Amino acid sequence: MKAWPLLTAALAAVGVGLWWFEGSEALPVVAVAPVAPRALQPVAAASAAPTAAPVAATAVETAAVASLSIAPPAQALRTLTRCYAADSCRLTRGEGMDEHFEVVRLLLEQLDRLATHGSPAEQAAWARELLAFPDGHVQAAALALAARLPPSAETAAAAVSALAKTYDAVLLGKAYPVLRQWQQLGLTSGYDDMFVGLVHTGGWQAAQSVAENVGPFLNAGNVGRFEQVARELQPGARQQALLRTLRDHELQRRGG
């Protein structure tokens, strides 16, 4: 008799199960699209890709820069100018102009090495190229190297082209003796246009420097151009300096 309650409960449970199964047939079936695991989705692979290339490129350039002290100077100069142009030297962790100044320091070191160990052709080629580098210290070093080499019209033209764009009066001060040295050898192509352009429309310090120092480059063939510029300049220090230079030239011409 004690088994009857247990049997009754079991039969009730079976009945409920049958009712749930039969009732569920009326429920709609909703299809669910399978979801790809995250590790297999293409988005995950794409997001990881960009980080690898910059790390590799930086590692290559860091290794190249680290080898500068043992590389031939011409090769070292090429490494520096290329990474500087690409803004990828990564020589310092500082901000602002720290990277520029470090590149300049290394370029000057390599120019010194080139002057000792480079061939005359390499020295001339790098002097011409670095005359256009955007730093007055490097330009001055390139000009000094060029002055020690056999004069050439190509090198003089590179110097004139670079100086015509400068705002650096200190660089011009270092250039005048070299330009006079080439002048004595007849390498004066472009001088007049460079000086006229600087004194007429150049930066204030560069224009003032030319107005004060152009005297040795004046001659019967170009003095008229500078007199015309002096008349066109606004009254001020630049005009006064150029007029004074022209008067001194005239006195020397007359033997006074």
From TrEMBL:
Top-level lineage group: Bacteria
UniProt name for this protein: Uncharacterized protein
